[in-house]
Design goal:
This protein is α+β, with helices and mostly antiparallel strands. It folds into three domains: 59 residues, no CATH class; 124 residues, no CATH class; 154 residues, no CATH class. Helices cover 31% and strands 35% of the residues. The protein is built from nine helices and 16 strands. An eight-stranded mixed β-sheet has the order 9-10-11-12-16-15-14-13, with helices on one face. Strand 10 and strand 11 form a beta hairpin. Helix 1 packs across helix 2. The longest helix is centred in the middle third of the chain and has 33 residues. It is globular and about 70 Å long.
Length: 370
Amino acid sequence: MKLSDCAPARHLLTVALVAAAACGGKSPAPGGAKGSGAPVVVADSATRQSADSAAAMAAVRDTAAARRLSPSADSVAPYLVFIPREERVLVAASRNKRLLLDVGRMDLDVRKDSTKLRAFREAAQVLSPIPLRSIFHLQWAQGGEDVVADSFAVYNGRIVMTLFGSPALDTAARGKAALVALATRADSAQPPVATTCELRVAPDSATLAAQLLLTPAERKAQGMARKSADSSFDARVLIVRDSLELDLRKERAPFERLQRRIKVGSTQARGCFGVARRALVVSLRAGDAEWVRERLVLVAPDGAVTALRMNDLRFRAHELITAFDADGDGVDDIATRATTERAGGTTVLRIDLQKKRADRMAGGFAWELF
């Protein structure tokens, strides 16, 4: 290094400090220093740069959080990747008969090592942007309620927290049907909000009393009428499904190897989508979601069909899980099992009837295959 390099704003901060020290505060000669002084300055620069880099790394590593961790928890901490602190809307889903909240990714297997598992829980409590006993406002199929997030765990490579809510929510989480909900960080407690969809509204006392007064023949007649209506609606949805499949098959996969591996799939979910009561997705897939063509429509009881455009970032194929009002606007939204090549996750799509779109609201429980 030449002493003329002491000019300001010519190098990084570390080298500039070293050069300034070498210059001794004096202006160097135009030709630079000669003789044995130059090698000494080079060696001194290398030494000081290495020491400064180590000091910078130590300063970054020696944070207030790291000082509160035990050595075992500190060794596990680099493998925890949490959501951004500004993230307010998260996905919750039932897994192993519990309602779990996805809060990050875990890059270390701690399930079979009790020591690592204890270290993970200690590190998670210190590093998580969501403290234990945090309150979330949950929107699910039966309406909205406040829940508490507690106890960290690892599920399928994800950092999760267990949600505790009403007895009805706990029963639904332990049921056989898949439960997906949208959890929003709550600044204060809110009163429970019931669902507005008549498909999931519990009968009131007057309705229950009226049903008790019916004779067995009248109850049987009502049941037969409901079954007949559902059967005709199901038949209409099946016709729509077949029509969408025929339309999708008009387009061929670009490669012959994909054309031999095309599979068709369809899923549907009951809900209140304006006048429609059924959401239907039909898709053609080939090569592990390498090539996908799919359609999302809403079907009304009178047979009217509304096509929606699906916007879900990088995910290509979707399977409907359930429908619920995620944003409280009176129109049900849909939870999907979304996939792409060697990856997937759970997403919640907001239904916009005015724009005829299904836009992604939140995603979670992502997985990848390497």
